[in-house]
Amino acid sequence: MKYSITIFFLLVSSHIIAQQFSMESFVLDTAKVSLGKRGNYNLNSTVFTNRLFYRLLDGNHVSERDVDRMQSRTSPYNNIGYNFDLDAYASFRPDSLFNREMKNHTFYFRLADRQLINAQFSDDFVDFTLLGNRNFAGSEANFDQFNLEISRFQQIQIGAFHHFESGNVVGASIGFLNGEQNQLIDSDFFRVQTEIDGNSLSASSLLTIQQTDTNNTGFLSNNGAGASIDLYFQKMLSSSDGSSRKLTFELQDLGFIRWNANSINYQIDTTYTFEGVFIEDIFNLNDSALSASNPDSLIDDFLGDGSPGAYTYWLPARLMVNYSVHKANGTFYRFGGIYRFQANMLPYIYGQYGKQLKPNLSLAGTLGLGGYGMINLGFESRLHWNWANLDFHIASNNLEGLILPMFSGGTSLFVGVQKRF
User: Fold this and answer.
1) pTM of the full predicted structure?
2) DSSP per residue over 114-146, as a string?
3) N or C terminus: fewer CB in 10 A for the chain?
4) Which of 70-74, 288-292, 316-320 is predicted least confidently?
C-alpha cells in the first residue's frame, strides 16, 4: 500500500482569544439571537521561516543565507503547526422554552470543519531537510522522537450556558465528530547513516505509523466517528474604578475519534539499507533501473506489510485562560495563556492592548510568545455596521512574518461576521 508523508512547509464573532475560537462568542447578554460565520488560519514554526514557505510555493531556490538563518533558530525542541477552521453557528436566549422560564440561559448550535497538522523534530532533521545528507557523510543523523500528526474532521455541536445574577457564566457543549482523515507517526528511535563515500544510506528505526483508508478521501469522507465536550467558566471580578474585569477558563476538544477497521497500522523495528542504483549507460536507461529508484517502491520496502485495524485517536484538547479589563474611557487589555495537549505545541502566552476609537470601531495590538513560533506580533480590529446590525472582525497574530519573512515563520488570519437580533 502506498504511503506518502507530507510536511507542509475567514466569518464570526465578537470574541477571539489570541486568534483562537472561543465559546465566549456564543454567550448572549442583551440580544436574543445571533448568527455567525468564522474562519481561522494559522501556520507557524520555531525553525522554518516564511521565506522558505514562499519559495516552496513559487518553486524558487532557497538561498544559503536563508538556510543559515533557519539553522540558527534551532533548539532542543523544534516544531511546526498548522490549523484551518471554518464554522457557522446560531445562538439564542429565549425567555421560555417548553413552558419553562429560560431567560438565564443561552443555547447554541454549531457546524465546523477542522484541519490540523503538527510535528516535532530534531536539529538533525532540520539540517537533513534543508541540505540533504551531504553534511552527514560518514556520520549518523539523529531523528529520535520525531512526531507527526495530520487530522481532518467535521463537528456538530450543541451547547448551553447558564447566566448568574452576579454576571458569572458557566457553559458546556457536546460535539459529534465525523472522522475524515488521519495520519500519525511516532518514533522512539530513528537514525540515518550515510557512508563516507555516499554510496549507501542505512535507516535504523523503531516507528509506529497509523493512517486511515487512502482509498476513501475527500471532504466529508467517513473513516471514523467520535465525540467531544467543551467547558466554559466566566468569573466577573470586582473593580473600584468602574472598569469591567473578568476571568475566563475554557477546555475545548476533550474527546476522541475511533478510526475504522480499514485503517492501516505499521510497527517498524528494522534497519533498511539503500545502495543506490547502478546505471551502466546513462543514455540507455531501462525500466528496472528506474523502478528501483522509485520513491513509492523505496517507501514500500521500508514500511513492509501493514496490518489493517481500527485505532483510537484522542483529540488535542486545548486549555485557555484569559483575564480581561475594559475601562470606561474605551481602553481595554487582556492577558492569557493557551496550551494544546498532545499537539507538539509549546505553551503560548499573550498580552493585548486596545482602544475603542469610535462607538462602532476598535483596534488592538497583541504580543505573544511560544506556541508553534517564537515572538508573535498581531492586531485585531472590530467594526459594527449600524445599518445592518452586523459585527465584522479581522485579526492576525503574525505581522512579524509578513514584515520580516526571512527571520520569522508565522502567517495567520481570522475573519468573522456576526448578526445579532
Assistant:
1) 0.88
2) EEEEEEEE-HHHHHHHHHTTGGGBTSEEE-TT-
3) C
4) 288-292
